[in-house]
Amino acid sequence: MKRGPELQRGDVFGRYAIEKPLGQGGMGTVLRARDTVLERTVALKIMRPEHATKQSSIARFFREAKVAAQLTHPNVVRVYDLGEVEGTAFIAMEYVPGQSLRAYLGDGSTPASTKLRWMTEVARALSAAHARGLLHRDVKPENILISTEGVAKLADFGLAKRQEVTADMRASFHTQVGFVVGTPVYMAPEQLRGGEVDARTDQFGWAITAYTVLTGQHPRARDPQLVRPITPLHELCPDIPLRAAEAVMRALSLDRSRRFRDMEELLAELEPTIGSRPSLTPPSPTGPPPPMRGSRQMADEEALGCASRMRMLLRSRREMARLMDGPPTAPPFANDVPSDQETLAESWWFAMTVTPCPAAPLERAAFSPDGSRIVAVGAGGIAAYEDGAWRIVATHADPDGPRCVAALEDGSVAIGGREGLAVRVAGDGSVHPWTLEGVSPSEQRGITFHAVDVLPGAGADLVFAGEHAGRVVAAFAVGMQAAVTIGHPGSIYHVAYGPLVIGSGTAGIEVLTRSGIEVMVDEGPVSMCLAHLDDETVAIGGVDASVSVITPSTSRYLVERVETTAAIVAVAGADRREAWAVDANCGLFRRARLGRWIPWVRAPRTKAQPIAAWACAGKLVVVDANGVVLEGNRS
Known about the structure:
Blueprint: E1 12-13, E2 16-24, E3 28-35, E4 40-47, H1 55-69, E5 79-85, E6 88-94, E7 98-100, H2 112-131, E8 134-135, E9 144-147, E10 152-154, E11 161-162, H3 189-192, H4 199-215, H5 233-236, H6 242-251, H7 263-270, H8 298-309, H9 342-346, E12 348-353, E13 362-367, E14 374-378, E15 381-386, E16 389-394, E17 402-407, E18 413-417, E19 422-425, E20 431-433, E21 435-437, H10 441-445, E22 447-454, E23 462-468, E24 471-478, E25 481-489, E26 492-496, E27 501-505, E28 508-513, E29 516-519, E30 527-532, E31 538-542, E32 546-551, E33 556-561, E34 568-575, E35 578-583, E36 588-591, E37 597-599, E38 610-616, E39 619-624, E40 629-634
Parallel strand pairs: 21-25
Antiparallel strand pairs: 1-2, 2-3, 3-4, 4-6, 5-6, 7-9, 8-11, 9-10, 12-40, 13-14, 14-15, 15-16, 17-18, 18-19, 19-20, 22-23, 23-24, 24-25, 26-27, 27-28, 28-29, 30-31, 31-32, 32-33, 34-35, 35-36, 36-37, 38-39, 39-40
């Protein structure tokens, strides 16, 4: 029998006649089908074969149907049936002809009043779910469907959590502390930190979605940490009533105590501001530009072949978050360090450098290969840290332009950002742009580089990575020439340059070469940082308090737990035997035997979140978003 990805028009799956594929989800393939018994069109979600043998995946798959089936609401996608056909699990749901809300981002032809109405309908759906003790936990444009009649419907309850609820605790029910689920860029700060979540957490997801849909700008796109105040909605979208704009901004509060008590209180502000439903004109989809290729090299072909043999070709991640918000909480250090490591743990000491960084708050930081220099990009420009002090290396007219930095071995700084920004700032302050080969000037202006890394020991050999018109892009630089490759849909936010160049972003974990970009994604966590531990091993920090370790040469891929509840925001190591992870609360963890990352020394606490780390034998350095530098050494 054919399974999910193999099913095509004319095939039969149980009592369902397949009409056409609709798309791929994290766990299943979605198809339009005809129920031959009840004679109605359905959306058929069929579990992909690679998940069919995992009991946890099967349980989550069926939980989505059971949770959604508890809700009967005009703005919730209904579930008709669930079961198995010859061992393959499926869910039959209401078919909603139309598009997801994602199609309307940046669409100027749809009135703001219509988008506000849709978001009000989604708020009603969430209110109904909360009234039954259900948290959705993954509100985002992809999970909101807009029918051809102009009705918004909330879908995908695969991450929803059932809680017992009473009339007095409707706004306070919560999920398990320390378990992070959802799509990071739409998560509330408390959800990203792995803390307790409640109905107000869904409210933040609703608000950040509403803001993005109404303005066409994601609040975290230019300020991933949300360290700067979010531009008021009414300034960017004056077409909606001020009362509604202020309601969205209140729901978007980083401090959940400032949000509405529940969705009903939010709806009380929204309902009076919406008028009658206008007619709906779906936007005309525009296809992505054809991929551009750079020069091919034999080594790149071999690298891609190695990635292919790893058999990690499952696209599973569509969004990612880089850093989180809010003040740190005490890291959960264990009281009992293993006896064979007590001596080493107690022999570490830390020094804190609190020289103010003039570029703070910092968004990205990077260490030179030898760890002697730190470069960072922040609201106040590009800064470098040497000999215990920060100094400004370069300023920028457009504060949203620079996105990433790298410290080159000759003392210069590589900077990447919007509109194809790729420049080297020399020690004397002179600026030298890289020539991007394979793209026209207009195409270069459409590129945004989010990440850059230098190949250790190779001088100025480095790689920029990011996005172009919704597709991943990589630019390999040798000298002052950079060959550009544009690949599949998605964006790259982190990159590590080594024998195998690894990137991570919205499409997952990827291998980058001059001749192509290939996805290597499994079911691992959404990545927030990555680094080479040695020539053969790459460590990837996850939002769910884990570190994924890849050894491409042996096709090994391990997801290793870290004894913390917060996201891993920095990884570093001299080799696989001395690897370090840093969580969002500045907790330090060392990789022990059997792939466990255990709490290690108690580093000084800082007021901001760590953003980068570097390690060598007997030394660990961490820098936070304020430019505070922590340096640990064995005595």
